């Protein structure tokens, strides 16, 4: 398991700059614009990094290599799910850091105060997206992966406005402790776990 | 010990190797107690199948020319030269018997065969 | 003892079928898996490794069942193919860092020695390596984790003759330990003419034979002679026969019978694996 995570870090190491680039580009685009755009920075960066990490695995049909190693296919899928948790947390925390930085250096932007929900919320959205994305990735070929990457990006662009509004609504109406929010969170976690089992079954059956 | 394998030879590889090792032993190049390369080492050196070298050693063992000790490898047998010579004479006799049988079929007389042998001997000696 | 036991392995594709293949690979020997391209060699190997799921049949490797004990099996085997699907953008060193921790018996010193011997620079990226260099790297990895069984899928197809000979030496080195075994699929049979102990021949999805190479060469013979010697009965004795205006050349699988039949009227030659493969794959009469 640890070895598989290390594998992803080694594979991603040379494209670390890409993650940083996503972060800067999205920050530059979103931060000055909208009051709660910090969420979008986190979500976009996380998802871009995740789809980059999956692309690296299929670019040269590397699953054919991974299955020659002494690990089960279930472990391979497990590690990718762990990786998506790490990526979403790191990206969201980084976006939060940038937000703090922006508020202290440019007070003119008049950014709103952020709460814990502003970190958990975007992370949960990323995980929900990953829950749909990863099973597709593990059942599709290289070409299929490129296509769903495109589809997901369009989806993300389309979702930008509703997400921002939703996060705003939560902030303005002070809904942070609303029990339905917690129910949604639990739902997402369940979705993520179910998604993992589906992906593991799909990948175990897949022919390489 | 020197072994040369010819791809042009009609003899199977195992026989070529066997003949050469046997010759080395009979000529005294290999002495009683000398160790032979392991089956796997010989296969590697000659770039041939392990099965082939295994067969060579098994046949040589049957001829009592070599001894194989488990875990220690194979050695030229302590059997003395007289024994080896005796073995070869036995083989030669068998071949001679074959010749006699064949010549009878061709209705050659004893003298005919001896004369013919003489002729071949002389041919062998003249370069 | 057998290091691989395949029983009734079947996989059906629209284009072709691997049909009820049963095959034993013996411990302590090099087994060559031969056959023309596209007859199921790779599919068979992929099924052994669990990359393709068979429709029916079973595979046991080193006494363990596939795919149930897949992880244990893969600790103990080395896999080398003409394309190992490494991460192209990484260097050899990074790739090694990725692979090494997975193996319990990784020998770093051995690995570095092989890199030096194969003249592979750790700083080189995988994408810069030629096909042959990739095979060398895969071989270095396989030999550095003390694999007891080496499974090689067409490893020599991208290699120059010089390294092919070198590789045969490396394989023979591994075979100095009689617990080790190798299975080696190829359509370049000259490599196997030399070092293989057993030959398994796959044609059109079926196993034609799996025999010691030496007995194979003693059993089969190439007969060459004048076409006037042939009539329909005699033609039927051949596995494959090639007739031209200047005579015929054919493969028989009973050398003794051919010797009795043709006596001095035809020439009997030792076949090569290529001869056996060619005449069996073509079958019947070949007109040239």
Structural commentary:
The complex is a heterotrimer of chains A (208), B (127) and C (288). Chain A has 208 residues and is mainly alpha-helical. Chain A has one domain (2-205). Chain A is built from eight helices and no strands. The model of chain A has no long low-confidence stretch (mean pLDDT 82). Chain B has helices at 13-26, 39-46, 50-62, 81-105, 110-125; strands at 35-36, 66-69, 73-76. Helix content of chain C is 34%, strand content 30%. Chain C is elongated. Chain C is built from eleven helices and 15 strands. Chain C has helices at 41-48, 70-76, 92-99, 108-117, 131-144, 161-174, 190-195, 213-219, 232-236, 255-262, 273-282; strands at 2-12, 17-26, 30-34, 56-61, 64-66, 77-81, 149-153, 181-186, 198-203, 206-212, 221-225, 240-244, 247-252, 267-269, 284-287. A six-stranded mixed β-sheet of chain C has the order 6-7-8-3-9-10, sandwiched between helices. In chain C, strands 14-11-13-12-15 form a five-stranded mixed β-sheet, with helices on both faces. In chain C, strands 2-1-4-5 form a four-stranded antiparallel β-sheet. Chain C is α/β, with parallel strands linked by helices and 288 residues long. In chain C, α4 (108-117) packs antiparallel against α5 (131-144). Chain C has two domains: 2-214, 3-Layer(aba) Sandwich (Rossmann fold); 220-287, Alpha-Beta Plaits (2-Layer Sandwich), CATH 3.30.70. Chains in contact: A-C, B-C. Chain A binds chain C through residues 2-3, 6-7, 10-11, 13-15, 56, 59-65, 67-72, 205, 207-208, and chain C through 46, 49-53, 70-75, 79, 83-90, 94, 97-99, 101-103.
Give the tags.
heterotrimer, A: 208 residues, mainly alpha, C: 288 residues, alpha/beta, Rossmann fold, Alpha-Beta Plaits, 2 domains, 6-stranded mixed β-sheet, 5-stranded mixed β-sheet, 11 helices, 34% helix
